[in-house]
Design a protein that fits this description.
This protein has 421 residues and is α/β, with parallel strands linked by helices. The chain is 44% helix and 17% strand.
Length: 421
């Protein structure tokens, strides 16, 4: 992936300039060895805690650096941005700090917590406009506003100033390590963070392997790498909202092709398991995009043994209202939660027999509802069953078949699953 790439569009010197511009504005976030992860993977795992940044994500670095570099005339006209949440918070903070007006376009699917934070950081200096279902929808509306009102667009990732600001994360990582890292895992959404971190790290530690990590349902950079040109995905899973982008940037694609040694995609369910593990075992509140890099470690387990590994935890803006969905996705991914549509025999005692003869001693029914509200005696039921161990699944299916239960499993049927669950 490092062959035949275009020259770098951002230099290490520009990242150093950004570092000086940001030093009195941002938090120099902690760089911590994680004992639990290190023991689990038999290596030294360090976390760069951008979830503890002033706006709880790395995005303030690029946003402030770009906005601060604008001319007085551009600042007077005001700025516009499009964001799924974290870039918006960085822009809002910058608008308030520099006392300039900003319009912030966000997808209507953005978690409420992120919307509230944007308004909190921006105060009277920002107007939040919710539009469309994805970042790309919000982006299109933001660009229209810039063209209509002559305002400056602050791109979330595809701009040299944004990339240089983000590159200060890499600079801080290198400063903290006595020996060069063997691997650095970095989240990829539009590619701005990976471009910045990769540019600095490869300049001073070329042997360090840079691994980009995307959500499986929105792996636009991985697909673009495979096609050797930028690919706009038709549909994406928006769950990992901080990294769910249909199309990566032109500049970021060029740079990432040069600096990334590999790019991997992680299932959303695996991300959910990682979020819960980080909270329960490490007391870290990571958002889905922030947990991506740690979720990817299993893919490199064998290569990492005995090595020095860094994961950039890119953000911690997780809405508590999403935790039930996160737990649900995790259970399904781990094979512990299964949904069935079951036709119970039309006679008394059929449900009791199912409970006594089909459910195992450690199995729980977590959801039960008839699909027909007016004629429950003549309609199937939606049944959710949670297992204690995923190995209990085969025995459950065997008991249903032995009992002659008529069922349809819907976990692996995307149409039925999305319709019913």
């Amino acid at each position: 992936m490092n062959q035949n790439a275009a020259p770098k569009a951002v230099s290490m010197e520009e990242i150093i300039v950004a570092h000086h511009a940001l030093k009195n504005v941002i938090n120099k976030t902690p760089f911590q060895r994680d004992a639990k992860l290190s023991d689990k993977y038999e290596c030294n795992v360090y976390l760069k805690r951008e979830d503890l940044q002033v706006v709880r994500s790395f995005k303030i670095r690029g946003a402030y650096h770009l906005i601060r570099s604008l001319s007085p005339e551009e600042l007077k006209q005001g700025i516009v941005c499009a964001s799924a949440g974290n870039h918006a918070q960085g822009v809002a903070f910058s608008c308030n700090a520099l006392q300039i007006q900003g319009k912030i376009f966000m997808p209507s699917t953005t978690p409420r917590q992120k919307i509230a934070q944007v308004k909190n950081f921006g105060g009277s200096f920002v107007e939040v406009i919710l539009t469309g279902d994805t970042f790309d929808d919000a982006y299109a509306e933001a660009v229209k506003t810039c063209e209509t009102h002559g305002m400056k667009f602050v791109h979330p990732f595809d701009d040299p100033k944004i990339i240089a600001g983000n590159g200060t994360v890499g600079m801080e990582i290198i400063e903290k390590l006595d020996e060069p890292a063997d691997y650095i895992f970095v989240t990829v959404g539009g590619g701005g963070l990976a471009s910045g971190v990769g540019t600095y790290v490869k300049a001073v530690s070329p042997d360090t392997k840079l691994i980009g990590v995307e959500p499986e349902g929105a792996a636009s950079m991985k697909e673009s790498f495979a096609q050797e040109s930028i690919v706009a995905l038709d549909n994406i899973d928006k769950f990992v909202d901080g990294a769910a982008v249909k199309r990566v940037g032109d500049l970021t694609f060029r740079i990432c092709r040069e600096v990334l040694d590999d790019i991997v995609a992680v299932p959303e369910g695996k991300v959910c398991t990682t979020i819960l593990d980080l909270y329960n075992e490490n007391a870290i509140v990571a958002e889905p995009a922030g947990a991506l890099t740690i979720a990817a470690l299993d893919l490199y387990r064998d290569q990492m043994k005995g090595k020095t590994v860094v994961c950039v935890v890119s953000g911690g803006n997780n809405d508590i209202d999403r935790m039930q969905e996160i737990k649900e996705r995790s259970l399904i991914y781990e094979g512990l939660k299964h949904y069935f549509v079951i036709n119970f025999p039309q006679r008394a005692g059929a449900l009791r027999e199912f409970l006594d003869d089909v459910l195992g001693p450690n199995d729980d029914i977590t959801r039960f509802e008839y699909t027909k509200k007016n004629d429950k005696n003549n309609g199937p039921a939606l049944v959710g069953i949670e297992l204690k161990h995923k190995e209990d699944y085969d025995a459950l299916i065997e008991r249903m078949k032995k009992k002659g239960v008529q069922y349809t499993e819907i976990n692996n049927d995307p149409v039925l699953f999305n319709l019913l669950i």
